[in-house]
Each structure stands twice: as structure tokens, then as C-alpha cells.
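Appendix C: a fully annotated inverse folding record. The material below is reproduced so that readers can follow the format used throughout the book. The structure is listed first as C-alpha cells, followed by the designed sequence.
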């Protein structure tokens, strides 16, 4: 059982896996998906895999689930109320927990655990803020109490990199 299911009440609907059985294979989710003509899988395909394999569904180590835009078009199109986007989020979370997330996702998560920011403060960001008269970027890393709160939340959610913290800094320099 993943730590996400325990910590996040939105997973309660997926706990019993019963909602997946409401899918009648009509294909409305796939028709609504803006990527369905460009990718090798469909939202309906992911539901089938999840229904058949559950937590044993390795999803090619999660690669295909990461191409989802998370636009929720599939969910909105479903007349049965199956939360397809939630299932794909669950597959992503499971692949992340297994260490199979794409490198960019892992780097963003590590940066967040280290600095409390999801994106680095780059030289361009600093330059643009100066030109707009906005001053320095208020970073979580500059406030030790705020950064510790971010790490505490990550520990509560079971994020594997939260204990170490990864050091200090604002995540920034020019790139």
C-alpha cells in the first residue's frame, strides 16, 4: 500500500478499486484525451491495466503515465464517474516510490526537498525581477522555519528524500 493512499483522502475512492469496475469501455476518455492520437497508450488502456494488475502494474516502469497532461479531460468525459486521471496519478506515485520516475521529475522533487521550491531561481529570473522592480525572490530556503515545515510535510507523506534534506541553498544560480 502506498504512503499516498494513507495520507491523502482523495485516494479513498481508489482504495477498494471498485470505481474502476464502473468503466464500460465506451472510449469517451480516450476520445477526450488531447494526446491520444500521439501516444502509444490511452486512458482506457491505463484503466484496464490497473484493474487487471493493480499494484503489480509496473507500467513499463511508469514511463507512459508520465506523458499524461493531467488536464482531466478523460475524467470530465466519463459518464460513469471513473476518475481516470486519479488512476494515472496513482500509477505515477507508485513509479516514483519505486524509483522509476523520469530524471526531470526526480530532480524537481529533490530540489523541492532541498529548497522548498519546485523550480530553481535562475539568473534570468533574477534579472527579470530586477527589471520589473520586484526585488529578490522570496525563497523558502531563506526561512529555516518554513523550510523545516516543507520537510516535515514531505516526511509525513513518506517522500524518500525528506530525511536528508539535501543541504541548504536557494536552488538558484544562473543556468
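Designed amino acids, in order:
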Amino acid at each position: 500500500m502506498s504512503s499516498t493512499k494513507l495520507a491523502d483522502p482523495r485516494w479513498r475512492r481508489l482504495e477498494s478499486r471498485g470505481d474502476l469496475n464502473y468503466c464500460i469501455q465506451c472510449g469517451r476518455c480516450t476520445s477526450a484525451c488531447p494526446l491520444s492520437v500521439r501516444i502509444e497508450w490511452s486512458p482506457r488502456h491505463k484503466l484496464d491495466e490497473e484493474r487487471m494488475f493493480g499494484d503489480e502494474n509496473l507500467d513499463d516502469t511508469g514511463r507512459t503515465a508520465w506523458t499524461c497532461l493531467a488536464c482531466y479531460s478523460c475524467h470530465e468525459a466519463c459518464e460513469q464517474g471513473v476518475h481516470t486521471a486519479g488512476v494515472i496519478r496513482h500509477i505515477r506515485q507508485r513509479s516514483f516510490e519505486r524509483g522509476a520516475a523520469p530524471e526531470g521529475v526526480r530532480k524537481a522533487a529533490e530540489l523541492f526537498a532541498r529548497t522548498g521550491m519546485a523550480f530553481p531561481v535562475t539568473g534570468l529570473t533574477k534579472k527579470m525581477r530586477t527589471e520589473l522592480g520586484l526585488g529578490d525572490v522570496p525563497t523558502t530556503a531563506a526561512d529555516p522555519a518554513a523550510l523545516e515545515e516543507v520537510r516535515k510535510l514531505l516526511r509525513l507523506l513518506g517522500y524518500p528524500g525528506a530525511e536528508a534534506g539535501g543541504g541548504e541553498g536557494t536552488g538558484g544560480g544562473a543556468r
